[in-house]
């Protein structure tokens, strides 16, 4: 006992000696030109895991048991690396020399390994923190539209969908978006939600975009590309940062059919990160955006030429309620039977064949809310169990209003998505678990809600009384013609008479009707989604390269569970939620040959979805040949696939609108299994039969179970850094699609096999069905980019791309919505003048006119030429920057999707504190 006490006392007295053996290394790092501090610089003690990052004051500090002299490895993006030897204790004052980053960017997502972008085996684009700071775009997400080969659809100010290789539509389900390792898709709707739940503006470390097929590494849905976004490490990026952006849009009321006048734009972002000690760090991010949204106001008649005064069946692209369209011939025949003396007026009308009349629609403005609101918050805690082993716990929540387009416009009000993660990460492996929690909020489905509003204030036809909007219209039409009015004048007069008492958009009566209809679930005849679906995901990956001498080997496992819970409004889950599981395993191998001049790699992935009997295997093979030190030829084959989305796969009606579309109720089906008992005909043949009464015109549509689609893609590319100042990247690709999933409109009679009911009742049930086309669809294209370092921080970039589709299945809506070519030009400077206080950047984006096809219509998107610009001034002592910028500087309204809003200029001033 006495020995134990003495031993403890000795250890207690020796403890300070052990502590004193620790050497402290500390210092400050500054820019050699401007003399301002440089944050986020990596300072590592050579051959040890010890080190630190400089904080927002440029300071670093860490301890080591090694004795002097000590060798420090110092590196930071945009600066020349340094190796510094310290011979004695003391506070080190270090300067770094700025350097070009052209050709030195590193990426991870191309192969799940750190490698130079120029040496990537596949096409990849990258945006870093410095790019975001110098961009004219107030949102980093909108910067993506200037990258090589990228297409976007802007459905609203807060909802932008991106894609590559041509297949472009709002809410693209074949594009994967990953944020800090978490799939960003909404569990129920199955598509990425743009920037709604992405990183806040100040927390973006980098964004990497893989063009085209990427399933072998990232799983189902990666047919049109994968976007990988990485947030800032609180150990590396420390301090309090804030950015306040105030602006104005809708500058000229009436231009581009814009019904709004000048409106304020607000975007406020705060980030706070702190390293509490060498083991513990945290960060908190908050961003709030509010503005008046862009308004979809295309008044083009979807039925052809003519406006509301010329065409009684007028249905505007962005008019809602006028899809209720009925042939009034039965009412004309009824009037003729009761008043034979009207035969001279009625018989010529009946002789025309069909006399379709649409109910009066509502424009989007005044109907859908124009309040664009987005709130995002994130908190993350990191704890280093050991220098090479880290535990991460994070939570992210996003809520707001957004609008997207599909078979109509969907206004998501109060939509929210939360993602919560726990992760263990080491140098060679990680284990990650996360969940996504979706809440659809209050959704206004534009077209059917407006149709139901029309029916609520005055039914189209009331069988019990024989009265209604259409009987009143017909009676007024005949009265006006009998009074001497022309047919066109009588149609206008009849509509005015039938619309008597119609509530104006925005009126108390209109709002009451809209709120009541939008508050009734789709399963009960309204238009409300009650979706609170969830996603649970567990995955792990191990890099065996340190254990294997001759090959790089990475392997991983993934398990995913979708818990679909829409209360019957999206899925057949009225009784209980539906579980859909996916199991995955992947392996990636890489090997260098011929004195490391040739890099070969291959990846294989196995996926099983419980909705489908057969699993899917995907693969990627690539070769990169080093022509010289800074020139590389790459070739790759990639196979990608997607299981149909949950909505497409499940045996259910997606939405039962009960909306009187085309004279009957409309249902949108994304997978057809339970409706074989009804005849299904192509919609065009039904409409033709209504006019001809010839059964031969009815073309039967074959209903089959939907299958996964896949693509085999080949790509050849070349990247070269010439003279250290010119970076060139060119590529060409060719892809073959199998079991391609497109959409078709079909119709049947409600609950009867009698095809004459189409004629007798002038009503039918319309379906929009996802199905596999039998043809092999091919896509191909090419692209090129050139970046030139003009010295003194001047940089010019230009990129060009072209995408084409052949073997188009004209019976499908295939969503290949891209111009045949497009190009972008970028010119800027990140620091000039005294102490490099000034900066500017200008971009130019050109898109020729192109055909755009979507669920509720198709048409030509006009050509657009858009200029974005910004200039900024740095307040060095205050660690702040003032930026004056504009997107669409000339305020020339343009659209990038059919039925999407026209986008005008946004002019802003931004103040950023401690942003780096």
UniProtKB/TrEMBL annotation:
<dbReference type="InterPro" id="IPR012910">
    <property type="entry name" value="Plug_dom"/>
</dbReference>
<dbReference type="Pfam" id="PF13715">
    <property type="entry name" value="CarbopepD_reg_2"/>
</dbReference>
<keyword id="KW-0732">Signal</keyword>
<dbReference type="InterPro" id="IPR037066">
    <property type="entry name" value="Plug_dom_sf"/>
</dbReference>
<feature type="signal peptide">
    <location>
        <begin position="1"/>
        <end position="21"/>
    </location>
</feature>
<protein>
    <submittedName>
        <fullName>TonB-dependent receptor</fullName>
    </submittedName>
</protein>
<feature type="domain" description="TonB-dependent receptor plug">
    <location>
        <begin position="117"/>
        <end position="226"/>
    </location>
</feature>
<dbReference type="InterPro" id="IPR039426">
    <property type="entry name" value="TonB-dep_rcpt-like"/>
</dbReference>
<dbReference type="InterPro" id="IPR008969">
    <property type="entry name" value="CarboxyPept-like_regulatory"/>
</dbReference>
<dbReference type="Pfam" id="PF07715">
    <property type="entry name" value="Plug"/>
</dbReference>
<keyword id="KW-0675">Receptor</keyword>
């Amino acid at each position: 006992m006495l020995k134990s006490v003495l031993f403890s006392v000795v250890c207690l007295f020796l403890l300070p000696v052990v502590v004193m053996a620790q050497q402290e290394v500390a210092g400050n790092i500054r820019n050699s030109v401007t003399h301002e501090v440089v944050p986020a610089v990596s300072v590592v003690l050579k051959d040890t895991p010890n080190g630190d990052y400089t904080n927002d004051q440029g300071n670093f500090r860490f301890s080591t048991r090694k004795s002097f002299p000590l060798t420090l490895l110092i590196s930071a993006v945009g600066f020349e690396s340094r190796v510094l030897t310290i011979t004695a204790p003391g506070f080190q004052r270090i300067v770094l020399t700025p350097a070009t980053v052209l050709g030195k960017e590193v990426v991870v997502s191309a192969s799940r390994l750190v490698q130079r972008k120029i040496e990537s085996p596949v096409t990849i684009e990258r945006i870093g923190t410095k790019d975001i700071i110098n961009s004219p775009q107030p949102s980093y997400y909108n910067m993506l539209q200037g990258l090589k080969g990228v297409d976007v659809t802007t459905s609203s100010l807060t909802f932008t969908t991106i894609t590559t290789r041509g297949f472009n539509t709002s809410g693209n389900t074949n594009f994967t978006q990953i944020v800090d390792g978490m799939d960003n898709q909404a569990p129920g709707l199955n598509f990425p939600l743009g920037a709604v739940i992405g990183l806040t503006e100040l927390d973006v470390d980098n964004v990497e975009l893989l063009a085209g097929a990427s399933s072998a590494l990232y799983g189902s849905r990666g047919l049109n590309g994968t976007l990988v976004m990485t947030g800032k490490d609180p150990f590396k990026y420390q301090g309090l940062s804030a950015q306040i952006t105030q602006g104005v849009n809708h500058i000229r009321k009436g231009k581009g059919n814009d019904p709004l006048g000048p409106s304020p734009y607000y975007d406020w972002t705060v980030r706070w990160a702190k390293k509490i000690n060498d083991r513990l760090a945290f960060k908190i991010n908050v961003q709030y955006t509010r503005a008046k949204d862009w308004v979809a106001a295309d008044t083009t008649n979807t039925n052809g030429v003519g406006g509301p005064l010329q065409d009684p069946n007028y249905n505007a692209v962005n008019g809602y309620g006028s899809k209720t369209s009925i042939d009034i011939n039965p009412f004309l025949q009824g009037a003729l039977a009761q008043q034979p003396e009207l035969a001279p007026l009625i018989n010529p009308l009946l002789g025309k064949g069909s006399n379709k009349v649409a109910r009066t629609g509502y424009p989007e403005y005044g109907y859908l809310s124009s309040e664009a609101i987005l709130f995002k918050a994130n908190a993350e805690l990191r704890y280093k169990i050991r220098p090479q082993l880290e535990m991460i716990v994070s939570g992210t929540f996003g809520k707001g209003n957004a609008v997207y387009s599909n078979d109509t416009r969907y206004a998501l009000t109060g939509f929210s998505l939360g993602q919560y993660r726990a992760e263990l990460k080491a140098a060679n492996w990680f284990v990650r678990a996360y969940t996504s929690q979706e809440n659809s909020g209050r959704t206004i489905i534009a077209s059917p809600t407006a149709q139901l509003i029309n029916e609520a204030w005055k039914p189209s036809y009331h069988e019990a009384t024989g009265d209604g909007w259409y009987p009143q219209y017909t009676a007024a039409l005949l009265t006006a013609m009998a009074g001497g009015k022309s047919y066109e004048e009588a149609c206008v007069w009849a509509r005015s008479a039938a619309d008597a008492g119609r509530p104006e958009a925005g009126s108390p009566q209109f709002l009451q009707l809209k709120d009541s209809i939008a508050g009734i679930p789709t399963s009960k005849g309204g238009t409300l989604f009650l979706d609170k679906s969830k996603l649970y995901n567990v995955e792990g990956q191990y890099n065996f390269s340190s254990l294997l001498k001759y090959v790089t080997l990475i392997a991983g496992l993934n398990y995913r569970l979708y818990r679909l819970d829409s209360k019957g409004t999206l899925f057949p889950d009225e009784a209980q939620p539906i579980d859909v599981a996916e199991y995955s395993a992947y392996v990636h191998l890489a090997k260098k040959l011929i004195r490391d001049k040739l890099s070969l790699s291959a990846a294989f992935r196995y996926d099983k979805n419980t909705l489908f009997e057969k699993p899917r295997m995907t693969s990627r093979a690539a070769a990169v040949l080093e022509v010289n030190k800074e020139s590389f030829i790459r070739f790759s084959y990639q196979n990608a696939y997607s299981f149909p989305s949950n909505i497409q796969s499940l045996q259910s009606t997606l939405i039962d609108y009960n909306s009187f579309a085309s004279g009957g109720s409309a249902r949108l089906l994304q997978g057809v299994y339970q409706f074989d008992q009804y005849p299904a005909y192509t919609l065009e043949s039904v409409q033709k039969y209504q006019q001809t009464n010839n059964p031969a015109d009815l073309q039967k549509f074959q209903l089959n179970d939907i299958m996964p689609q896949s693509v085999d893609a080949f790509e050849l590319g070349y990247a070269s850094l010439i003279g250290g100042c010119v970076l060139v990247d060119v590529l060409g690709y060719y892809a073959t699609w199998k079991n391609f999933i497109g959409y078709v409109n079909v119709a049947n009679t409600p609950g009867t096999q009698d095809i004459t009911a189409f004629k007798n009742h002038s009503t039918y049930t319309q379906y929009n069905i996802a199905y596999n086309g039998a043809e092999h669809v091919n896509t191909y294209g090419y692209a090129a980019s050139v970046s030139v370092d003009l010295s003194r921080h001047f940089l010019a970039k230009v990129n060009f791309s072209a995408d084409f589709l052949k073997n188009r299945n004209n019976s499908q809506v295939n969503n290949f919505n891209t111009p045949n070519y497009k190009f972008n030009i970028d010119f800027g400077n990140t620091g000039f003048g005294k102490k490099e206080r000034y900066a500017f950047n200008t971009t130019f984006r050109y898109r020729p006119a192109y055909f755009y096809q979507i669920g509720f219509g198709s048409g030509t998107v006009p050509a657009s030429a858009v200029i974005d610009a910004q200039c900024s001034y740095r307040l060095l002592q205050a660690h702040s920057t003032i930026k004056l910028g504009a997107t669409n500087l000339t305020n020339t309204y343009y659209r990038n999707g059919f039925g999407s809003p026209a986008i005008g200029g946004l002019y802003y001033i931004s103040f950023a504190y401690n942003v780096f």
